[in-house]
Amino acid sequence: MLNQQAFSADRIDEADQLRVNVYRLLARLLRQPPDAPLLAILKQMTGDDSELGQAITDLSQAAAVTSLAASRDEYNTLFIGLGRGILTPFGSYYLTGFLHEKPLARLRDDMVPLGIARSDDVRDPEDHVAALMEMMAGLIDGTFGTVQPLSAQKAFFDRHVVSWTPHFFKDLEDCPSAGFFKPVGRIGRLFMAIEQGAFEM
User: Fold this and answer.
1) Predicted local confidence at residue 34, as pLDDT
2) Are the C-beta atoms of residues 146 and 9 closer than 8 Å to each other?
3) What are the alphabetically sorted keywords of the record (predicted)?
4) Are 191 and 53 in contact (CB under 8 A)?
5) How far apart are CA 81 and CA 175, in angstroms?
6) Separation CA 132–CA 138 (nearest Å)
7) Which phi and psi (to 5°) does residue 118 adopt?
8) Half-sphere exposure of 93 (CA within 13 A, CB side)
9) How far apart are CA 180 and CA 25, in angstroms?
């Protein structure tokens, strides 16, 4: 979804790599319908005894009992629809009720100095939840040219992510039409809370 520069030579620690992994998992799950390789990977995942770990285990179990066709149909029902899906995964919509509003303009302004640009072949606005998950991962691991300090990560998170994504993930978790994607919503909701708490320490 995003134009990515060469990875930074800076190395990140294990905790930050785990953060990157969760952000990229959420980005992939929400960017487009699952494919067979993704479902195969999800089936092999295991979580620990934490709430987030249990949600990951639930996702793995859902992948084990969900067909490729069913997971794709669910994705389309939730996010695409016949004009619009049940959920509208864009920041401007969650914050203003409309697409392409001021939150998107503010995001675009903040992307430029961080070296983040949308790919030419992407039609969705940059405030799609999957794009924001990719952006956070890139700020942490240097995908966009350099590893950003925690202060920059926090500023971006506070301004563009935590302002609405917890509500989106809760809506996804609670959506009656969500089956396979219900644990995705739970993972997102729990992880956003973990990130917010860590940034406030």
Assistant:
1) 97
2) no
3) Chaperone
4) no
5) 15
6) 10
7) -75, 140
8) 17
9) 14
Reduce the DSSP state of residue 71 to 3 states and report it.
helix
Helical segments of 112-181, H only? 129-141, 150-156, 165-174
Give dist(CA 168, CA 191) in Å, integer.
Answer: 13
Q: Could you give the CA distance from residue 9 to residue 59 in angstroms, rounded to a whole number?
A: 33
Tell me the pLDDT of the chain (201 aa) as tens digits: 565 554 444 678 999 999 999 999 999 999 999 999 999 999 999 999 999 999 999 999 999 999 999 999 999 999 998 678 999 999 999 999 999 999 999 999 999 999 999 888 888 999 999 999 999 999 999 999 999 999 999 999 999 999 999 999 999 999 999 999 999 999 999 999 999 999 999
CA-closest candidate to residue 24, choices 146, 131, 121, 104: 131
C-beta of residue 180 within 8 angstroms of C-beta of residue 66? yes
Distances (CA, A) of 89 to 97, 140, 169: 11, 23, 9
Domains of the chain: 2-200 (1.10.3480.10)
3-state helix, strand, coil in the chain (%, to 5): 65, 5, 35
Query: CA-CA distance, 163 to 99, in Å (whole number)?
Result: 16
The length of the chain in residues reads 201
